[in-house]
Amino acid sequence: MTATTQSEGKHLGPVHYVLVWVALMVLTGVTLAVWKTHLSYGARVVVALSIATVKAALVAVIFMHLWEERGVARLVLVVSALFVALLIGLTLTDSATRFPFANPPYSESWMDEPFQRAAPPMQAEPGPVRTAPVQAPAH
Predict the structure, then answer these.
(1) Are 62 and 17 in contact (CB under 8 A)?
(2) Which of 11, 12, 84, 107 could join 16 in a cystine, given CB atoms 3.0 to 4.6 angstroms apart?
(3) With a threshold of 0.70, does the pTM exceed it?
């Protein structure tokens, strides 16, 4: 009797890996495009986290071979994903319900206005930047 550690599922070929890579690149572009839109900050965060979740699922299922696994490996993935979702939800809830003076200067709650306002103008103009090397005085 021989114990096998390999799963009996069908293995994916190189074409599948290239297609998943292309999908990951397209989703990265979509994330960037959504971030540059005029949606509210909260909506952009939700969309970006949703796309990141899809990308993480693609990586886990294809590159970590969870498509071929059964049982405990899939359970670990689901429990880990739920734990991460819980932590992200608690973090967003904390920052959304903070007393306004507890936030850092020049920031707002992510639900109200843009996250960061422009910094105040500088008090004095900085000096010019030298572009040529300084000549040593002749003796």
Answers:
(1) yes
(2) 12
(3) no
CA distance 74 to 60: 10
Joined together, the tokens standing for residue 80 give 């880990």
Q: In angstroms, rounded to a whole number, what is the distance separating the alpha carbons of residues 85 and 3?
A: 37
Contact 111, 42 (CB under 8 A): yes
Phi and psi angles of residue 49, each rounded to the nearest 5 degrees, phi first: -70, -35
What does the pLDDT look like over 82-127, one tens digit per residue?
A: 998 899 889 888 877 776 666 666 555 555 544 445 555 556 666 6
Instruction: Give the pLDDT score at 1.
Output: 45
